[in-house]
Amino acid sequence: MNMKKVIALVALGSTSLLLQSCLGGIMTRPVGAFYSDVSDPVEATSAVGTRTGEATSTSYLGCVAVGDSSIDAAKKNGGISTVSSVDVKRTNILGVITKYTTVVKGH
Is-contact 89 101, C-beta < 8 A? Predict the structure, then answer.
């Protein structure tokens, strides 16, 4: 392989890794280029929730996304009428499978 091809491949790979942070969501949150498994707070009140509901959506290869990760879906899944906190979990494996889960706590 000649030097021009090597330089082009390195530039393409570097650009791909840099752009993943743009495609991965909020840049102030940790993003792993190869693997991510993080939880982030969204909103909380002073009330303590006794029930928990989760709702998940999944993306495959960044081409197809399915599911309902809305707060309403998480409330329904947990039997919650009053929300005390909302968190999200993000899991990404090589950009092949990405999961986004909304976790709602409340009464």
Answer: yes
Nearest to 83 by CA among 47, 55, 57: 47
DSSP state of 48: P
71 CB contacts (<8 Å, ≥6 apart)?
Answer: 55, 83, 86, 102, 104
Residue pLDDT, tens place only, 45-98: 877 888 999 999 999 988 899 999 999 999 999 999 999 999 999 999 988 899
Give the H/E segment covering residue 90: strand 83-93
Q: Kindly state the tokens that stand for 56.
A: 């998940």
Contacts of 96 (CB under 8 A, 6+ apart): 60, 61
| Full DSSP string of 12-28 | HHHHHHHHHHHHTS-TT
Phi-psi region at 82: left, alpha or beta (left = phi > 0; alpha = psi -120 to 50): beta
